[in-house]
Amino acid sequence: MSGITIHSSFLPHDDPEASLSFYRDILGFEVRGDVGHGTMRWITVGPVDQPGTSIVLAPPAVDPGVTDDERRTITEMMAKGTYAMILLATADLDGAFDRLQASETEIVQEPTEQPYGVRDCAVRDPAGNLVRLQQIR
Question: Taking the CB of residue 11, how many other CB atoms lie within 10 A of it?
Fold first, then answer.
Protein backbone atom coordinates (compact mmCIF):
# COMPACT_ATOMS: atom_id res chain seq x y z
CA MET A 1 0.00 0.00 0.00
CA SER A 2 1.12 3.54 -0.57
CA GLY A 3 -0.16 6.90 0.52
CA ILE A 4 -0.55 5.94 4.19
CA THR A 5 0.49 8.62 6.66
CA ILE A 6 0.48 8.98 10.41
CA HIS A 7 -2.53 11.12 11.29
CA SER A 8 -2.79 10.93 15.09
CA SER A 9 -1.09 9.19 17.97
CA PHE A 10 -2.55 9.03 21.46
CA LEU A 11 -0.80 9.79 24.74
CA PRO A 12 -2.51 9.57 28.12
CA HIS A 13 -2.85 12.53 30.45
CA ASP A 14 -3.91 12.69 34.08
CA ASP A 15 -3.93 16.49 34.29
CA PRO A 16 -5.20 18.07 31.07
CA GLU A 17 -4.13 21.62 31.97
CA ALA A 18 -0.55 20.55 32.78
CA SER A 19 -0.33 18.48 29.59
CA LEU A 20 -1.79 21.31 27.54
CA SER A 21 0.76 23.72 28.99
CA PHE A 22 3.64 21.31 28.23
CA TYR A 23 2.72 20.58 24.61
CA ARG A 24 1.46 24.08 23.73
CA ASP A 25 3.57 26.46 25.81
CA ILE A 26 6.86 24.57 26.14
CA LEU A 27 7.01 22.51 22.92
CA GLY A 28 5.16 25.12 20.86
CA PHE A 29 2.46 22.88 19.39
CA GLU A 30 -0.82 24.38 18.31
CA VAL A 31 -4.11 23.24 19.84
CA ARG A 32 -6.34 21.72 17.17
CA GLY A 33 -9.15 20.45 19.33
CA ASP A 34 -10.25 20.35 22.96
CA VAL A 35 -13.38 18.38 23.80
CA GLY A 36 -14.84 17.18 27.07
CA HIS A 37 -14.43 18.73 30.50
CA GLY A 38 -12.52 18.22 33.72
CA THR A 39 -10.13 15.29 33.52
CA MET A 40 -12.28 13.75 30.76
CA ARG A 41 -10.79 15.93 28.00
CA TRP A 42 -9.36 14.93 24.64
CA ILE A 43 -6.89 17.61 23.53
CA THR A 44 -5.46 17.44 20.03
CA VAL A 45 -2.13 19.22 19.47
CA GLY A 46 0.46 19.24 16.74
CA PRO A 47 3.33 21.08 15.09
CA VAL A 48 2.21 24.30 13.41
CA ASP A 49 3.97 23.39 10.15
CA GLN A 50 2.57 19.83 10.04
CA PRO A 51 -1.23 20.15 10.00
CA GLY A 52 -1.71 16.50 9.05
CA THR A 53 0.07 15.04 12.09
CA SER A 54 -1.37 15.27 15.60
CA ILE A 55 -1.07 13.96 19.12
CA VAL A 56 -4.30 13.36 21.01
CA LEU A 57 -3.84 13.80 24.76
CA ALA A 58 -6.52 11.58 26.23
CA PRO A 59 -7.72 10.34 29.59
CA PRO A 60 -6.27 6.87 30.19
CA ALA A 61 -8.28 3.66 30.40
CA VAL A 62 -11.72 5.12 29.67
CA ASP A 63 -12.59 2.32 27.25
CA PRO A 64 -15.47 0.33 28.79
CA GLY A 65 -13.58 -2.89 27.95
CA VAL A 66 -10.75 -2.01 30.34
CA THR A 67 -11.06 -3.87 33.64
CA ASP A 68 -10.47 -2.33 37.07
CA ASP A 69 -7.26 -4.37 37.38
CA GLU A 70 -6.07 -3.03 34.02
CA ARG A 71 -6.92 0.54 35.10
CA ARG A 72 -4.82 0.07 38.24
CA THR A 73 -1.93 -1.28 36.18
CA ILE A 74 -2.14 1.64 33.73
CA THR A 75 -2.22 4.13 36.62
CA GLU A 76 0.81 2.45 38.22
CA MET A 77 2.73 2.41 34.93
CA MET A 78 1.94 6.06 34.27
CA ALA A 79 3.18 6.97 37.76
CA LYS A 80 6.45 5.14 37.02
CA GLY A 81 6.73 6.67 33.55
CA THR A 82 6.67 3.31 31.77
CA TYR A 83 3.26 3.39 30.07
CA ALA A 84 3.74 5.52 26.95
CA MET A 85 6.40 7.33 24.96
CA ILE A 86 6.84 9.42 21.83
CA LEU A 87 9.83 10.35 19.71
CA LEU A 88 9.94 13.92 18.40
CA ALA A 89 12.60 15.64 16.28
CA THR A 90 14.04 19.14 15.99
CA ALA A 91 16.74 20.95 14.07
CA ASP A 92 17.81 22.70 17.32
CA LEU A 93 18.15 20.06 20.02
CA ASP A 94 20.22 22.27 22.33
CA GLY A 95 17.77 25.17 22.13
CA ALA A 96 14.81 22.86 22.74
CA PHE A 97 16.58 21.23 25.67
CA ASP A 98 17.36 24.64 27.18
CA ARG A 99 13.64 25.56 27.00
CA LEU A 100 12.66 22.23 28.57
CA GLN A 101 15.21 22.60 31.35
CA ALA A 102 14.15 26.22 32.05
CA SER A 103 10.53 25.08 32.37
CA GLU A 104 11.45 22.66 35.16
CA THR A 105 10.38 19.70 33.03
CA GLU A 106 11.61 16.40 34.45
CA ILE A 107 14.88 15.65 32.64
CA VAL A 108 15.61 11.98 32.02
CA GLN A 109 18.69 12.40 29.80
CA GLU A 110 20.62 15.46 28.68
CA PRO A 111 21.54 15.75 24.97
CA THR A 112 23.74 12.76 24.20
CA GLU A 113 25.39 11.29 21.13
CA GLN A 114 23.95 7.76 21.07
CA PRO A 115 25.98 4.74 19.92
CA TYR A 116 23.28 4.00 17.32
CA GLY A 117 24.00 7.24 15.46
CA VAL A 118 21.57 9.86 16.76
CA ARG A 119 21.90 12.74 19.17
CA ASP A 120 18.93 13.07 21.48
CA CYS A 121 17.63 13.86 24.94
CA ALA A 122 14.73 12.58 27.01
CA VAL A 123 12.20 14.19 29.35
CA ARG A 124 8.89 13.26 30.93
CA ASP A 125 5.71 15.14 30.21
CA PRO A 126 3.38 15.96 33.13
CA ALA A 127 1.65 12.55 32.85
CA GLY A 128 4.97 10.69 33.02
CA ASN A 129 5.11 9.85 29.31
CA LEU A 130 8.67 9.56 28.04
CA VAL A 131 9.37 12.18 25.38
CA ARG A 132 12.59 11.63 23.42
CA LEU A 133 13.70 14.55 21.31
CA GLN A 134 16.09 13.77 18.47
CA GLN A 135 18.38 16.12 16.53
CA ILE A 136 17.51 16.30 12.83
CA ARG A 137 20.72 15.99 10.83
Answer: 21
